[in-house]
Amino acid sequence: MKHLNIVLAAVAAICASACASKSESNPVTIGIVPAPTKLEVVEGKFVSAENASKVTTRINTSLAEEEYTLTIGRRGVEIAGGSETGVFWAIQTLEQIKVQCPADSIPCLKVIDRPAFPYRGSHLDCSRHFFSVDEVKGWIDMMAIHKLNYFHWHLTDDQGWRLEIKKYPLLTEIGSVRAQTKVGHYNDKAQGYDNTPYGGFYTQEEAREIVEYAAERHIQVIPEIEMPGHAVAAVTAYPWLGCSGKQVKVRETWGISDEVFCVSKNEVLDFIKDVIDEVCDIFPCEYFNIGGDECPTTEWEKCPSCQAYMKEHGIDTARGLQYDFTAKVEQYVLSKGRKMLGWQELADGCSDASTTILAWLGAEAGIKAAAKGMHTVMCPSQWCYLDYYQTREREKREPLAIGGYLPLSSVYSFDPLEGIPAEQHHFVRGVQGNVWCEYIPTMSHAQHMALPRLAAIAEIGWSGSEGKTSFDCFKARLTKGLVPVYQARGYNYATYEWE
Ligand SMILES: [Zn+2]
């Protein structure tokens, strides 16, 4: 209860300083996103920009790892972090403070801050469209200013395999290139294809460079290698990975393909293990994401090998084949010292307490997972899919998108703990914003979709339910603190909220 009182006081303090201000020119009005746990402004004393640049940092091990205190005094700035990570988050807060205050009137203040959830994620689909190493680094920079700490890197899918695997060079030689791409929306059959090859991949050296770049910003990179579905690019490169063995082609349109890995063949499982070996060597992250979503069973139902396997192992349904496969992969991932992560569809196939599911089809999957004692990261599409439209005018005003309607206020309304009993809250590891890129061909466009909605995700993850403010308060803080940072960095953020 004591903790709750502190938090409530913190919310009051933030609103008093950021939202209840009568004058926009009031120099003590400070807006910070995500909302800090506690912010105290000392009125009447101001710091010059020069002194605000005199920053001393130290580690205070009595603080939690990501926790920090930030004190702006007349002679300079003092930062204490529970670790270098806490110090780094404090510097992000300082950037927002400095960007919104006139150079000669930065108020003296103290921030005490720590995250509500340990996992605050941002997902980027680099299969449907490919982003360069520099662009991915830019995405990581963008995450850092939001204090997001897990980059979920979607590296393989039907439309392109984007990571070099040395033992299987055709994955990228063949699997990274599609001959052409669907023009317009998937449902719009009339528009045809662009007749232009599209490709790109990351060498292992480049992927390591990105991992290192992220680590310097206290962000872990989670590789996602999709299996057993969303595997057309891999099956194109090595047709023996599929059930029929027939030559297919890297998928040129969106949606879901029936062409998946043949889960009954030993050589396919060996391939998966080889890939996991190489990927684990590149990515030190505690999580390994195996995807696991949207896997049709059509091919398995026709495949003699899969049918024989089902009989031999007493598996009653074709879906049971996926669970059997997932259980084997889970064991292998665990043997590599990693936790398995994947979309909610794999929940029934795994058994280890460390395995974590991404609840995306609705919060219900996360609620069920928590009830079963499974870890979950909440990213239900109706709140966390940042590839949806942001306005009601849709195509008239916005670039083509997959569909949906998800304005900033709806994202902010999400409560990842709703419907989950308090004793199960710890199974909810956090939240994530997902950016699927079927209709997002450039990084500038990706920024337009992510910003500012990713700020709402970041605040839900960092400030938690207890630190939540009104949407108006959130928007006021966003406008004062983060938007100027977006502008200073030249991000192509969406401006619909300010029109
Ligand atoms: Zn098969």
Question: What would a concise description of this structure say?
Answer:
By secondary structure, the chain is α/β, with parallel strands linked by helices.
Walk me through what this model shows.
- This protein has helices at residues 2-18, 49-52, 84-100, 133-145, 170-173, 204-216, 232-237, 266-282, 298-302, 304-313, 318-335, 363-371, 381-384, 408-412, 443-450, 453-463, 471-489, and strands at 38-47, 55-59, 68-72, 77-81, 106-113, 119-125, 150-154, 156-157, 160-161, 177-178, 198-199, 220-224, 287-289, 339-343, 356-359, 375-378, 428-435.
- It has 499 residues and is of the alpha/beta class.
- It has two domains: 2-113, Chitobiase, domain 2; 119-468, TIM Barrel (Alpha-Beta Barrel).
- It has an eight-stranded parallel β-sheet with strand order 12-7-6-17-16-15-14-13.
- Strand 6 (119-125), helix 4 (133-145) and strand 7 (150-154) form a beta-alpha-beta unit.
- It is globular, with a radius of gyration of 24 Å.
- Residues 243, 262, 264, 300, 303, 305-306 line the site of zinc ion.
Question: What key phrases describe this protein's structure?
Answer:
499 residues; alpha/beta; Chitobiase, domain 2; TIM Barrel; 2 domains; 8-stranded parallel β-sheet; 5-stranded mixed β-sheet; 17 helices; 17 strands; 36% helix; disordered N terminus; binds zinc ion
Q: What radius of gyration results from the CA coordinates? A: 24 Å
User: Bound small molecules, which ones?
Assistant: zinc ion
Extended strand count: 17
| Structural domain count | 2
Q: Terminal Cα separation, in Å?
A: 41 Å
Give me the CATH architecture of the largest domain, please.
Alpha-Beta Barrel
CATH superfamily of the largest domain: Glycosidases
Provide the spatial order of strands within the biggest beta sheet: 12-7-6-17-16-15-14-13
Principal-axis shape equals globular
Number of helices: 17
Helix fraction bin = 25-40%
CATH topology of the largest domain: TIM Barrel
Unreliable runs: 1-18, 20-28
The chain-level structural class is: alpha/beta
Mean pLDDT: 93
Question: What characterizes the major β-sheet?
Answer: 8 strands, parallel
